[in-house]
Every structure is written in structure tokens, then in C-alpha cells.
Design goal:
about 300 residues, alpha+beta, Elongation Factor Tu (Ef-tu), domain 3, 2 domains, eight-stranded antiparallel sheet, two-stranded antiparallel ribbon, disordered C terminus
Length: about 300
């Protein structure tokens, strides 16, 4: 995975290629010019300007994509005025909106199917003013980190309790792990909440199968996982075992899901994550999964324990 922009994932794999070319970034500042009689004007710095980024994306049927669907997804983002963090190789370049799109349909087959679309994308920075943090100069960085963890913790606590993780220290540890893995709090919140909903879904599977154990258990399982069963299999996860564990120990179930996803072959990893957690949450969950594997070396009982 090269990076993400909201629901759009830039990736190169054996099955599909969705990446960009001619990446350009423009950074500017604003100055006020004061004219002086008989002398050269004086410039006064006013404020930083908004960054602008442009690049071209190729959507090709020959590279495993549906060009029309890919272009339509971008058009919807434009029309809704949505902004997302642009993340390249784990680094957040900032929040951006798509200011304009320009599509070139280059190849169609004899039946009128579009095989190749080149899309020129222009992004403009969407500045989100940070909340003021009262702190001394020496502790400002630490205070900012704590503020981010608190924001994530407050946003995920309801879903964590629904999933059976109700101890404040466990929720705080999960929020801290998310912040270390996904620096942007909004992306971390989306990823963690989707992950917790996944664990809660496993609990529902276990409850339903227990109620219907004398009936068609396999059919019930297939129905309740709603097409996710294949993704679990690719991740090497036994759904029934994990569903049972999710009831007795949701923390371990959560860690097992992350461990399974990160061990998937890189060519399938992003698709598995999308099927299990959704388009918007796939990128943050994968980053959290990778961080979880690192943290498991430091904690005896996993990332959720402190």
C-alpha cells in the first residue's frame, strides 16, 4: 500500500494497480505590500497559504480496476465537498479537498465499455484549526499527545463498551496504540471504531449460533458474516473459535483479528481489510495492525493491556 486519501487506496499488487504520476505540491505564503514614496515597497508577512497538490491517476481495466466506478467515486467526493487526510507511505501530508477533476477517456471497446481513464486531480489544503492546549513550552508536545489520546478515547469508549471492553485503562491503552499507529486522530477514530464493530459482530455470530445450534449452523454463520467469511479464511482466522473468544475475552479477540490481518500476503492484505472493516477504515486498521505486532513484543498480554 502506497497511501490513502479517504476511501481511495493507492496500491500496487498482483491483482490491481492504483497509483499516481506527476505528483506536484505547491506551498505559498501571503504578503501585504506597502508602497513607499520614492522607495521600493515593503513586504509584510501575513500568513501561510494553503498548500495545493496535483497528480494524475490512471484507472485501467487491464490493471484490475473498473475505470468508471473509480472515477465515479472521486466525483462523489468532489460533489459532497468532503475532506480527508492525504497519507503517503504512512506520512500525513495534511487534510485536503478535491478542488477539481479532469477525466480523459482514452480507450473503449467495441461495446462501449470504458477500459482506460486518466484523471487529473487538483487538491487544496483544508485547514482545521487545532484546539488550543494550555501548556508550558517545555511540556507542549507531551500535552498535545495526551490531548490526541483523550480525543480518540472519548470517541471510541461507547463502541468499546458495546464490544465488551469497558475498563477505562484498556480503552485508554487502545487509544494510545491507535495514536502511535495513526497520527491523525480522526483516521484513528474511524479505524478503531470499525475494528470494535467487527468484534461486536463476532459476538453476535456466537450468540446466534448458540441459539440455533440444532439448526443449520454453517448457513447461519455464512449469513451473519455477510460475505466476510472468505476474508477471515484468507487471514487464517477460524471464525467460530474467534466468535467464542470474543464473548469471553474481547481484548484477545481484537488482537487476534489484527494479527491475522497483518499476516495476510501483501497482495491480498488491503482487499481483506476493506471487506472486514470497510473502505474508509481499511488503511488506519492496517497501520494499527502493524503497530500491534510491534507492541506485542513489549507487552506480555498484548497491546490492550498496560
Amino acid at each position: 500500500m502506497i497511501g490513502t486519501f479517504g476511501p481511495v487506496t493507492f496500491e500496487v499488487s498482483a491483482e490491481k494497480t492504483r497509483t499516481f504520476d506527476d505528483f506536484k505540491r505547491k506551498t505559498s505564503v501571503k504578503f501585504e505590500q506597502h508602497d513607499i514614496v520614492g522607495l521600493k515597497p515593503k513586504l509584510e508577512f501575513v500568513a501561510p497559504g494553503l498548500d495545493e497538490i496535483s497528480f494524475q491517476v490512471i484507472f485501467s481495466a487491464f490493471l484490475g480496476l473498473s475505470p468508471l466506478k473509480e472515477a465515479e467515486q472521486l466525483r462523489q467526493i468532489v460533489q459532497k465537498g468532503e475532506y480527508y487526510p492525504l497519507i503517503i507511505k504512512g506520512k500525513i501530508l495534511g487534510n485536503f479537498v478535491i478542488e477539481s477533476l479532469s477525466e480523459t477517456w482514452k480507450h473503449l471497446d467495441k461495446e462501449g465499455n470504458v477500459l482506460y481513464i486518466a484523471v487529473d486531480i487538483s487538491l487544496k489544503e483544508y485547514y482545521v484549526e487545532p484546539k488550543p492546549i494550555k501548556a508550558s513550552t517545555s511540556t507542549s508536545s507531551a500535552a498535545a499527545a495526551v490531548a490526541k489520546v483523550d480525543k480518540i478515547k472519548d470517541a471510541i469508549k461507547d463502541q468499546a463498551k458495546k464490544a465488551g471492553i469497558d475498563k477505562l485503562k484498556d480503552i485508554a491503552a487502545l487509544a494510545n496504540a491507535a495514536m502511535m499507529a495513526v497520527k491523525n486522530p480522526m483516521s484513528a477514530i474511524i479505524g478503531v471504531n470499525s475494528l470494535l464493530k467487527n468484534v461486536q459482530g463476532l459476538q453476535n455470530v456466537a450468540k446466534y449460533v448458540q441459539m440455533a445450534k440444532n439448526k443449520d449452523v454453517t448457513g447461519a454463520l455464512n449469513q451473519l458474516t455477510s460475505g466476510k467469511l472468505g476474508a477471515y479464511k484468507i487471514a487464517g482466522i477460524n471464525v467460530m473459535d474467534l466468535a467464542k473468544k470474543s464473548q469471553s475475552n474481547p481484548k484477545d479477540a481484537l488482537i487476534n483479528v489484527l494479527s491475522g490481518v497483518v499476516k495476510v500476503d501483501p497482495t491480498n492484505r488491503i482487499e481483506v481489510a476493506k471487506k472486514l472493516f470497510g473502505e474508509k477504515a481499511a488503511g488506519p486498521v492496517l497501520q494499527l495492525a502493524k503497530k500491534t505486532e510491534e507492541l506485542k513484543q513489549e507487552f506480555d498480554k498484548g497491546v490492550i493491556n498496560v
